[in-house]
Each structure stands twice: as C-alpha cells, then as structure tokens.
Amino acid sequence: MTEPARVPVLNIANVLTMSRLVLVPVFLYLLFAEDGRDHRWRLAAFAVFAVASVTDHIDGNLARKHGLITDFGKIADPIADKALIGAALVGLSLLGELPWWITVVIAARELGVTLLRFWVIRHGVIPASRGGKAKTLVQILAIGLYLLPLPAGLEIVAVVSMYAAVVLTVVTGVDYVIRAVRLRARGKRAVAGA
C-alpha cells in the first residue's frame, strides 16, 4: 500500500493565511492616519480589512477543495483571524469609538480559545466550528460597519451588529471549552487504554 501524499506546509491556502497577518500592520497604519478621523483613510482601512477578511474565506475553501489542509493551517488560520479582529477592536477602542468592555470580552474569549487549542494539541486539533465561523462573520460585519464613516442614523446598525457579535463570541467560547474538555478526556482514555 502506498502512503497518502503529505501536504506541504507552504501551499496557497497557508500563504493566504500568512498574508492576512502581514496586512494587520498596514490596516492599523491606515486606521490611525489623521487620528482616524479622515474619511478617505477610513475607507482605505476598511478596504484593507475587507481584503484581509475575504482571504479567510478563500484560504479555507482552497484548503478543503484541493486537499491542502495542514495542522499548521488549522492553527495559523484562527490566529490570523484573531490578530486581524483584535487589532481592529483595539484600534477602534483607542480611537474612542468602541467601548473597551467589548474589546476585552472578545479578546479574552479569543485568547482563551487559542490557549485551549494548545492545551489539547497533543490529543488532537479543534477545528473551527460552524458557530465559530458565524461568530467570525458577524464580528467582521460589525467591525466593517464601525470602520465605515456611516451617517448618524445608520450608526445603530453597527451597534446592534457588535452586540450580536459579543453574544456569539461568548456562546461559541463556552462551546469550545466543552469540546476541548471532551477531546482531552478522550485522549487521556486512549492513552490509559493503550
């Protein structure tokens, strides 16, 4: 029998994931240009954020469609997402446009899930769940709305979207804790039974 071909770590899906990380400082530069108040710079920051966010969808589809899924990608992809989302939240809070408690709740959940992934890594990898993907999509939508220079009447849409993102963030965080505990318990039982 032949062994299945090993997927190289350096593939198009992982390159797109890494490009998302590279775009984070570019995005922050544009967000803070002219103290974050110039509409043209904000639109440029929004455009970079949107491009970086789209790469998340593209890299996942490419990895699944072409069999390019790697353990590196399973770990690097959510880290790249967290870096982009975290940078945007902190940036908006520093500009005084987003309450710090929202940034802290989301950042604490994201950090917690990342630590959980490392806590169970020798027992397996926890891939992103559907709820986690929905959470990321709503966070991206809410942040995008905050980045845009919206007319006064439409600002409520950004606020409602952000509150929905916070709720999804907390609910999916609890789900990840449950999945991590179960995965670790299964791993320990497998070792004990071996």
Commentary on this structure:
The chain has 194 residues and is mainly α. The protein has two domains: 1-97; 98-193, no CATH class. Helix content is 77%, strand content 0%. It has helices at 12-32, 39-65, 71-94, 100-119, 130-147, 155-193. It is an enzyme of class 2 (transferase). Its EC number is 2.7.8.5. This is CDP-diacylglycerol--glycerol-3-phosphate 3-phosphatidyltransferase.
Distance between the termini: 25 Å
Sheet-strand content, in percent, reads under 5%
Give me the Rg, rounded: 18 Å
Shape label: globular
The unreliable regions are none
Helix/strand-derived category reads mainly alpha
**What value does the average pLDDT take?**
87
- Helix and strand succession? HHHHHH
Individual helix count: 6
Please bin the fraction of helical residues: over 70%
Number of strands: 0
Number of domains: 2
The biggest beta sheet, please? none
Family: Belongs to the CDP-alcohol phosphatidyltransferase class-I family.
InterPro entries: CDP-alcohol_PTase-I (IPR050324), CDP-OH_P_trans (IPR000462), CDP-OH_PTrfase_TM_dom (IPR043130), CDP_ALCOHOL_P_TRANSF_CS (IPR048254), Phosphatidylglycerol_P_synth (IPR004570)
Protein name: CDP-diacylglycerol--glycerol-3-phosphate 3-phosphatidyltransferase
Subcellular location: Membrane
List keywords for this structure.
mainly alpha, CDP-alcohol_PTase-I, 2 domains, globular, CDP-OH_P_trans, CDP-diacylglycerol--glycerol-3-phosphate 3-phosphatidyltransferase
